[in-house]
Write a structure and sequence with these properties.
By secondary structure, the chain is of the alpha/beta class. The chain has one domain: TIM Barrel, CATH 3.20.20.60. It contains eleven helices and eight strands. The N terminus is likely disordered.
């Protein structure tokens, strides 16, 4: 069992992730919303911590991510930032906080200045290129979230696998390329077919993080509460309970990191062939 005190404190940066992608070393990412769990993730050598707007569902108990506010994101990001020592800290931009470049700049700056985020994540396709370009031009690192976009839950008709027909698949690929061109430093693909994910990975240069996407992605992310088996209700197919067989929460997180690094996770049952 690893201990927090003996971990190297060399910070993970975008350059670190780019080198990992190039060398084939998988990037392990999990969500966190407070200082205590952040320390657990740091002790497991996680590379990326995401303060996700998923906190609305797993922390606040609301039905979707939509009610989460910028102020709430800043609060939780600040809690995580206080305990972060090494991992790259990404914060979600909540629903309707980036509807224009000006609004996006204001809220992203708050997440970084007040919350301690080192990168922001926003949902959307090529139509968000102008926003991404404005953020990148002002020195704000961006992760672009494609595929299933929880903030578009109602527009998409629920939580459904994306890219199953040829037109939808090509649209995701085109969006990924457009967002990279606009200045996105990372791409996140959620709940897309394996073929779509593999095409995005093959046709873009920045690291691609998957959640319910292909194992060929440069890294994987899950919601912390899902890997601990404590999320109420039915968990998505792409999740795995790493507490099964673990002797502690720390052990479960370490098992997740090891599974991502070895390529054991995600297995076929956690992805979507069609």
């Amino acid at each position: 069992m690893s201990t927090y005190s003996d971990k190297p404190l060399t910070a993970v940066t975008l350059n670190t992730l780019a080198k990992m992608k190039k060398s084939g070393e998988k990037i392990a990412c999990l969500t966190a919303y407070d200082a205590t769990f952040t320390a657990v993730l740091e002790a497991a050598d996680i590379e990326v911590i995401l303060v996700g707007d998923s906190l609305g569902m797993v922390i606040q108990g609301v039905a979707t991510t939509l009610p989460v506010t910028v102020d709430e994101m800043i609060y939780h990001c600040r809690c995580v930032a206080r305990a972060r020592k090494r991992a790259l800290l990404i914060a979600d931009m909540p629903f309707m906080s980036y509807s224009s470049p000006a609004q996006a700049l204001e809220n992203a700056a708050r997440l970084m200045k007040e919350g301690g985020a080192q990168m922001v994540k926003l949902e959307g396709g090529g139509d968000q290129s102008e926003v991404v370009r404005a953020l990148a031009r002002n020195g704000i690192p961006v992760c672009a979230h494609l595929g299933l976009r929880p903030q578009s839950f109602y527009k998409m008709g629920g939580y459904r696998v994306q890219g199953r027909d040829a037109a939808a698949a090509q649209s995701i690929v085109d969006d990924a390329q457009a967002l990279q061109l606009a200045g996105a430093d990372l791409l996140l693909l959620e709940c897309v077919t394996t073929a779509v994910a593999e095409t995005v990975v093959a046709t873009t240069e920045v690291p691609v993080i998957g959640i319910g996407a292909a194992s060929s992605c440069a890294g994987q992310v899950l919601v912390l509460h899902d890997i601990l088996g404590i999320t109420p209700g039915k968990r998505p197919r792409f999740c795995k309970d790493f507490m099964l067989g673990a002797d502690s929460i720390q052990g479960a997180v370490e098992r997740y990191v090891a599974a991502v690094k070895s390529g054991a996770f995600p297995a076929a049952e956690h992805t979507f062939c069609t």
